[in-house]
Write a structure and sequence with these properties.
The complex is a heterodimer of chains A (176) and B (385). With 176 residues, chain A is an alpha+beta fold. Chain A has one domain. Chain A is 12% helix and 28% strand. In chain B, the strands form 2 sheets. Chain B has a 9-stranded mixed beta sheet. In chain B, strands 5-6 form a two-stranded antiparallel sheet. In chain B, helix 3 crosses helix 14. At the A-B interface, helix 3, strand 6, strand 7, strand 8 and strand 9 of A face strand 1, helix 1, helix 4 and strand 5 of B. The complex binds zinc ion.
Chain lengths: 176, 385
């Protein structure tokens, strides 16, 4: 099998980002009005409502006995409806984590300029079944001193600022 | 079920910012695949296409858009998509069209053009996360892979400097691949000193943004024997998805890859994968992923993949060469096309047509694997000469 080497430079014009920004080439500018009103469903709806109250709620499956967070209306392992609501704690341990120098669109953070790296983590929540984690952020900790098993606690927004969202918890910080 | 063979293959060069349109890329690979086995589009009964998120191209219904470039005009045509696992689902999708007896031949095309998304295709991935519990935290794919890599490392005590050897090996292997985008001789220090993206992932731990296309021709046994003297048989296929509650799984081990591998091995009659499989192309979009997948593919015991790497077992001259092509890290990673590139590498190796990349010892059995979605899909194909 032979690979075709292509003479792209001879057949097409190479674009620079600057040319697009300066409007020197035809480009399609389109700001789509793609706004969504996502329904949360009963399980996440209650989860968010309790976050507004400053509490974390999970749901239990009486077949596999897992206490699941985020709560769900059906157990994906047993494929049956879940059972009781169970309040869990706002503390937990770091299951795994990252020291990120990039944002969500792979844009570089100004680390040299003093910006703190973002430190997302999977946090296993106390009171939920072993290994039940949620994605959240860590802060008030030296990014390079985070370790597996580190104990952490939620730092909540003040009650009047909470809206019923995962961001009602600002981040998790270490506790002793 | 009928036996199905790969009888032809085509692969474009992988680039960043290729100038061709996605259709043109698909056409190039598909035409090359047909030419390689002296077949015409009129000999093809059906066409399947693998291509990853529409958001890369800003083009909804990308499968439909790619129809004519892929040779799908007025033919039974179907698109499949399971994120990064797409490229190895492609031959599986083509396989059941032919194995079922419905069609005698199938043209399988995989195309990806990532560089159209400005400023970076990473931004297109925000919407794969749960909209209520995760998107508000603005996660990226790099975060979650770094999260998985760290869990893998802390579970076994693997060191970054050892894992970096995967990049060294694969980029070196890619120096012999004519399609390669990022071949080169680099050192472990180069990897460790490259820009931190999301620790423990540095820049050289990641495959590049790439554009490219790949294609293969599948044929039922009676056609395959007529078309070529060296058909390569698809003897086992497997695929599986794990739960999308990815924080609920222990990320140190890819169970879904094991489920897919066991399905493919059972079908191929493989009882001892590490002995019966001679070469492997595990998916390596990140350095640690090659090791993670070698473990999931049961090619070593859990926790032994780094030792295997250090012992040289996975080098091209080792007992179980892994990514002799140069992999996603070296050849490049145009998502769907990468998986099919891996299938093509096993095809060429088993035909002993891999040129300078040819592994010694006349391999007769190989496995290719890909992975993707929310770190939850495994796709596996076992091939024999
Ligand atoms: Zn259950």
């Amino acid at each position: 099998m032979e690979i075709m080497e292509k003479d792209v430079a001879k057949t097409a014009t190479k674009l620079k980002t600057q040319q697009i920004l300066e409007g020197k080439v035809l480009s399609v500018k389109w700001e789509p009005n793609l706004k969504y009103a996502w329904d949360n469903g009963p399980a996440l709806g209650r989860y968010l409502a309790e976050l507004k109250n400053g509490r974390i709620i999970a749901k239990k499956c009486n077949k596999c006995h897992r206490i699941m967070i985020p709560p769900r209306m059906f157990c994906e392992l047993c494929w049956r409806p879940t059972d009781e609501w169970v309040f869990v704690k706002d503390t937990g341990i770091v299951n795994t984590w990252v020291v990120s120098y990039v944002d969500w669109k792979a844009g570089r953070l100004d680390i040299k300029g003093g910006v703190r790296p973002i430190t997302p983590a999977v946090i296993e929540i106390d009171g939920a079944s072993k290994g039940m984690g949620i994605l959240h952020l860590l802060d008030e900790v030296d990014p390079w001193k985070i370790y597996r098993g580190m104990r952490v606690k939620a730092v909540w927004k003040p009650a009047e600022e909470r809206i019923g969202a995962i961001t009602d918890i600002k981040y998790f910080k270490p506790i002793e | 079920m009928r036996r199905v063979a790969i009888v032809g293959a085509g692969l474009t060069k992988f680039y960043r910012n290729v100038q061709e349109t996605p259709k043109e890329l698909a056409y190039e690979a598909a035409k090359m695949a047909l030419d390689s086995c002296e077949m015409k589009l009129s000999d093809i009964d059906c066409v399947v296409i693998g291509t990853a998120p529409d958001a890369f191209d800003g083009l909804h219904m990308k499968g439909e858009y790619l129809t004519d470039g892929s040779g799908g005009y007025r033919k039974p045509y179907m698109r499949h998509y399971v994120g990064g696992g797409t490229g190895v689902l492609s031959p599986i999708h083509g396989w059941f069209h032919v194995a079922s007896g419905m069609f005698d031949t199938c043209l399988v095309v995989a195309e990806e053009k990532m560089s159209s998304a400005y400023p970076h295709p990473a931004g297109a991935f925000l919407t794969i996360f749960d909209h209520t519990t995760e998107q508000p935290l603005y996660p990226t794919l790099i975060w979650i892979f770094a999260i998985e890599m760290n869990r893998f490392m802390t579970t076994y005590g693997y060191r970054k400097e050892d894992i970096a050897l995967v990049a060294v090996k694969n980029k070196k292997n890619a120096m012999d691949h004519p399609s390669a985008q990022l071949p080169g001789e680099i050192t472990v220090e180069d990897v460790l000193n490259s820009e931190i993206m999301a620790w423990p992932v540095n820049r050289l731990d990641i495959s590049p943004t790439s554009d490219g296309a790949a294609a293969i021709v599948l044929a039922a046994e009676h056609v395959a024997r007529r078309v070529t003297e060296k058909p390569i048989w698809i003897d086992g296929v497997g695929w599986a998805l794990d739960t999308a509650y990815w924080c609920t799984r222990d990320l140190y081990y890819p169970d879904y890859v094991e489920v897919a591998a066991r399905m493919a091995y059972k079908m191929a009659g493989i009882k001892e994968p590490s002995k019966e499989i001679h070469i492997a192309e595990p998916y390596d979009p990140f350095t640690y992923k090659e090791l993670h997948h070698i473990e999931g593919l049961l090619l070593c015991k859990r926790g032994e993949s780094v030792q295997m790497l250090l012992d040289g077992v996975t080098q091209r001259t080792g007992n179980l060469p892994c990514c002799p092509s140069g992999g996603a890290l070296g050849v490049g990673n145009p998502i769907a096309a990468t998986g099919l590139m891996k299938i093509i590498e096993i095809f060429l190796q088993l035909r002993e047509e891999a040129g300078k990349r040819q592994v010694p010892g006349k391999p007769t059995c190989g496995v290719a694997q890909a992975w993707g979605d929310l770190m939850q899909v495994g796709t596996v194909v076992v091939m024999r000469s």
